[in-house]
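Troubleshooting: if your tokenizer reports a length mismatch, compare your output against this known-good record of 850 residues.
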Amino acid sequence: MSSFAHRAVVAALLSSAVFAMPAFAQTAPAPAPAPVDDNADIVVTATKRSESLQNVPISVQALTTKKLDELNITSFKQYAQQLTSVSFQALGGTPGTNVIYMRGIASGGDGNHSGTLPSVGVYLDEQPVTTIGGNLDVHIYDVARIESLSGPQGTLYGASSEAGTIRIISNKPDTSHFYGRADVEGNHVSKGGFGGKAEGMINLPLSASAALRVIGYYQRDAGYIDNVPGTRQFCGGVNFDAAGNCVKDGIAVNNAAFVKKDYNDTEIAGGRAALKVDLDSNWTVTPSVMYQDTRSHGSYGYDPKVGDLKVQHFFPEFRRDRFIQAGLTIEGKVGNWDLTYAGAYLDRKTYQSSDYTDYSEAYDSLYSSAGGLAGYFYYRDNAGRTIDPRQQVIGSDHFKKLSQELRVASPSTDRFRIVAGAFYQRQSNDIYQDYKIANLATTLSVNGSPGTLWLTKQYRVDKDYALFGEASFDITPTLTASAGGRAYIYDNSLIGFFGFGRDPAGGFNTTPYNAAGSSRTGVAGCFTTNGTRLRDAVAAGGSTTLLPPAVAGGPCTNLGTFAAGAGVQPVTASGQGVTYRFNLSWKPVTGVLLYGTASRGFRPGGINRRADVPPYGADFLTNYELGAKTTLLGGKLRLNGAIYQQNWDKFQFAFLGLNSFTQIQNGPNARIRGAEIQGSLNLRALSLSGSASYTDAKTTQNLCFAADPTFTCGGATPSAPAGTRLPITPQFKASGTARYSVPIGTAKAYGQGVVSYQSSASSDVRTLAFTPTGVPYNPAATLGRLAAFTTADFAIGADFSRFSLELFLQNAFDARGQLSRFQQCGSCGQRPYIVPVTPQTIGVRLHTDF
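Known-good structure output:
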């Protein structure tokens, strides 16, 4: 039995055991904690104090345990649908690869492991779990609430909270009594397969001052995209038609070995444990650990040219995403001040295989007049024969994050009160990407890696240091002013290798230099023992002895700087500055809070891998916001809203440049205006809730092909003219829930409906780009718009004293909502893929408390 299967069985057994435990629990029938009512006072910690949601003078949306259970939410995509200020780019659609945006702060193209840092911070309890290259898709179970903080949160949450912060707050161990819960589900996806999950939680008091809380889960998401039979034909390199283009008479391939229905299934297994120890009446220590293993197979995007929910792929496709996160929180009092230490260590490993056949298909056509890939490149085996040009990409990332924060807070009842602290974070990523061509000649491959056309082996480190504070003063009992700031320093570095090989025969001067014929990229740019780059040493007739690789697994080092006596050092980017937030709040009458905020956030600059592309600088977001929070009709009705304008200065823009090589530059400024509203109404039997957002995000200057401080693009046509709408974020997004409950005997029966809508959005900000052969095209039009869509979910069920049963129908009308669009390479416009919402799903859930 595989280790993953073993964990799945353990999770299932845990849930089975939990279902059996009510019989043993009869000797201690203490009731489990009651779920939080929709309109009960929701306590959040958005300002790093425990406060009522209705008293926090910033825009916060919270999904409570009750709401998460009612909506059957277990993943990021599901809760993002309810957070109307949140959008995301699903890079391939595979779980754990989503890039999160808030309030329209999106330029597209993000997510590369050597790319920009995220603009939205993600926290698990007190610890940041924000990662480059896709969010940490934490399984949602036994979660107290999810808090969505819109707008810059830089003063309290730092660099990656430029546009907002999402906080996942788990339920904590409870010393009062023993209790637990368990849930099982079975479901079937229309046009797909069967799935399900098993989850369980136990809260175990160890003494009057200590308790342990443990959860375990296993989930299988059924596939619904089919890999159908197909062929690809490539140029032979020697025969041309009357128009001068190659004849597709070369190698023909098929995908018979990989044809499969329901291609894109996912399995998730994991658990979380937390121990709470009250050292005395003032001090509490809470260590915690979470482990999760996600295994995805196939493609989560379909090719509309092939058919609905269909692809034609030619290599194994899978992704494994494992992480372990250990946290330690210490809370106590020094005098009457609260002191909190929060430390965490995250270790995340991903490994994946991707089909890159689209690249070969696209470039075979681009170089048709030169005989396609066979005529333009040197894809040959050791015998000199032309080979199958298709590529398979093997990649891995080993991401580590260490964070520590120490803060103090004065009593919340004081007229003048402060929160202040210090923060340190170190993130690292060991990056590996191997572009393989089967049977590629050794002399044409990357040195030491036969069959590898292109290799990336790099080590990235991002460090952050900060001092922060926020003070509030009650000018009158109903009028409060707040001001906060954060002084920050960032220090980022990148070192390693990227590119093609170079045959050492003949003093590295044998041609072809590699399968691409490149004389400058890859080993050609590596440092020799005297600090000269190899290509310059060859040209000058100097020594061609290469320095050993700075990052193990690479042939040498070409990404770095040489220092005499110190060897090759990382390329660095650093900066420092201050962010701020000012807030004025007023309670004119009971149940009404009005506020105004001016705040500023930032995102650190960084390094481009290409030596001929300069580093990019930090970008900044300034937010001006007016909001209101109201509690009316004796607490039955809550209505919160905000309007805002945000100015995004020199936004970081990542795109696939020449040879599908990611490069980043600072773009123009942008302006985002918007409004958001959330409300809930509780009429006993009937409860209604909903949220909506309007986002008008546009550039205010031209986006040029190269960094241009004047934004005139030198008189040339811009890549995106001023006034272009920013991509990914829909202009309108809304979600509403209605739930009706009625007593039937000893049970409470209920029915629920959820409707979600989002308008269309562009997939790319650029309206003009050029192919490697110089042909102009419109990237936004080529990739296509994300179409508007509406989904509806329904559920009926009954709650008994200690268990509940529910039948549900998600995406009831089988809407083919488009979450994202992507293509395999910068010139692969012939096959844009669509990542859809999960098709219609029917299922049953069983829940028990004990």
